[in-house]
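Supplementary notes for students who missed Thursday's class. We covered one full example, reproduced here. Read the sequence, then the structure, then the short commentary at the end.
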Amino acid sequence: MLVNDDRLYSEFLRKTGTQAVDHYGLIMFGDPKQEDFLRQITVSEHVFTATDSLSKIASKHYGEPRLWWVIAWFNTKPTDLHCEVGEKLFIPHPIGEVLAHAHKRVQ
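Structure (token representation):
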């Protein structure tokens, strides 16, 4: 668990009356580029646009915006703010295999 009390978010924290935001570290899922795992999946590409968010991309590719963290984890981009317009993001499929891999790593 990580605590985000970075100055970058100070305005958000002030407006919401929050001291800090707890985040789960992506490292808990292990290395998304592990060779055995990569042989079991396929990867599509998505070029990040000015109107994109990780949750919109997850909704488009997985039908579920709450799976945004999968794209963040696989691309080592913890938030939308880490993505740049025109940058190529890689989307791992099938989602069942990806989630199974992540679940095994957590245990």
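Commentary. Residues 37 and 92 are 10 Å apart (CA to CA). The radius of gyration is 15 Å. If anything here is unclear, bring it to office hours.
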